[in-house]
Amino acid sequence: MAETIPFLELNKICKSYDxxxxxxxxxxxxxxxxxxxxxxxxxxGCGKSTLLNLIGTLDTPDSGQILYEGKExxxxxxxxxxxxxxxxxxxxxxxxxxxxxxxxxxxxxxxxNSQLNAKQRREKADHLLHEMGLRGKEDARATKISGGERxxxxxxxxxxxxxKLILADEPTGNVxxxxxxxxxxxxxAYIDATQSTMLIATHDPQxxxxxxxxxxxxDGKIIDTRHNTSYS
Amino acid sequence: xxSHLMFKIAIHYALRNIIRTPVRxxxxxxxxxxxxxxxxxxxxxxxxxxxxxxxxxxxxxxDIIVQSKFSATPLSSSISQKTAETLTNNPxxxxxxxxxxxxxxxxxxxxxxxxxxxxxxxxxxxxxxTLTGGHLFQPNHxxxxxxxxxxxxxxxxxxxxxxxxxxxxxxxxxxxxxxxSFFNSSIILSLEDARKLLHKPDKNNMLFISxxxxxxxxxxxxxxxxxYDSLSAVKSSDFTGxxxxxxxxxxxxxxxxxxxxIVASAILINTFLMAINERTRxxxxxxxxxxxKKMIVYIFVIESLLLALIGGIIGFxxxxxxxxxxxxxxxxxxxxxxxxxxxxxxxxxxLMCVFIGVVSAIFPALYASKISIAKALRxx
Lengths: 232, 380
What we know:
The complex is a heterodimer.
Chain A: E1 8-17, E2 22-32, E3 37-41, H1 48-55, E4 63-68, E5 71-72, H2 79-86, E6 87-90, H3 102-109, H4 118-131, H5 147-158, E7 165-169, H6 177-194, E8 197-202, H7 205-210, E9 213-218, E10 221-227
Parallel strand pairs in A: 3-8, 3-9, 6-7, 7-8
Antiparallel strand pairs in A: 1-2, 1-4, 4-5, 9-10
Helix pairs in contact in A: 3-4, 3-5, 4-5, 5-6
Chain B: H1 3-20, H2 22-59, E1 64-68, E2 79-80, H3 81-88, E3 93-105, E4 111-117, H4 120-124, E5 129-134, E6 143-147, H5 148-153, E7 161-162, E8 170-178, E9 186-189, H6 191-197, E10 203-204, E11 206-211, H7 217-227, E12 231-235, H8 239-242, H9 244-278, H10 280-288, H11 293-329, H12 343-369, H13 373-379
Parallel strand pairs in B: 4-9, 6-8
Antiparallel strand pairs in B: 1-11, 1-12, 2-10, 3-4, 3-11, 5-8, 6-9, 7-8
Helix pairs in contact in B: 1-11, 2-9, 2-11, 2-12, 9-12, 10-13, 11-12
């Protein structure tokens, strides 16, 4: 029987900083499938964010191979185009552009690869914001809303291009428990509806429990893999 | 790229970033405004003076202009009447107009330019002078004509008398207008009266020569310059280029243009390097969500253009105010000043701002577009 190509495959990924003085990742290998949520857990400095950055093509590994649906990043037109078409990023600190409104922030992600016209783009941005419970906040700037609202706005931006892979770095790290639960539910609903994949780097046990599979990292290695049966 | 939305977002982004750091934006705009206003003012004065001289020589059907050698301006030139008369013996010369020119302090202590022009009725229209009231002066009758603008400023009317020396006062018999600005700050008398008033007996400042055959202009110029050691004859069209003071003004204008470009660009580059330092994480985010380098450069160029244009437009209006102020406060140099700034100068200022804006943003924006995304997100 032919082996199914995983959605994302990492083979022996290594990464170090400061001319090799700081080793962040030591030969990470893992496979991610479509329609699943994965969590990377571990203490600060264990390499979670570095791994997300490498998968997100925001940085390059020193050695090893990352395959997206069986292809290396070089097979795609450009990393920028690849990120636009494949990925949505959610960061711990929302990182919305403070001088733009929530709607403009979401629209800014659709500038290049969306086939939508201005009206459709606006409607889609509003729809995503409403989905995130931000009705009435479309014209508010990031500086004028609460931390939870900002994070939901950032998730709306991450979903703007219907990404196949969502990379979330501590998405609930800066919000209260209620908002955290709401954010995780919204993300779960999106993954279930679109059969896309999500990888979350988190300290939050609530986020860990919410994933289908949890990878535990320590000193740049994956030391444990746990499957949560409630979601699988 | 969705250019319309991109432009809209870039404009929003730029405007809000300008407001985000109001003090820095204010001083950036203020510095550009002051630099552009200085450049505009100097350029417009230099251009205006050249333009006026050129208009005079063109309108006056003048082929050759003669001054005394080594005189930096017509005011410092001096040609004896005897020399002028010998020139008229040349059969190729159709007509010769003598000009006496000087400054005179009016009773209110302000300065007016005094012109004495030979054969004035014949040449008045050619010099763009229009009589708007009264009549021409009569030689040796202590009569004069005064520019309408000057009369208005001095609250004078026809028939008024004005003391310009210890002698008998002069009566204003006529008022005039001219499309040549410096005549509008002047007094015109007969050649003889002007010589007396300015204490230049038998002297002329300039000679305007018309030839029967303009084709011979170069050969006549060569002849005058060879035969008269004390004279400097030039083609009327080259006249402004030979005036030392004007040349200096043009050099100064060019130097200021270069300084303007360098200083304004340095200010903007500094502003943007600081902005990029502060917005490193934002740039990382834009990169992360798939913006191209071109788009990142674009938003910074738009912001820079906006700052430069706002500064440029304010600078233009400052220069208008400065021109107005100088016209009234320094009558000594009103001779050089245009009556207003025209749209062409405004266009040049705007073009200069566009150039400064684009050039200044490119380097910092390219730097911004090359920032490592992971580093920007981590350390930004």
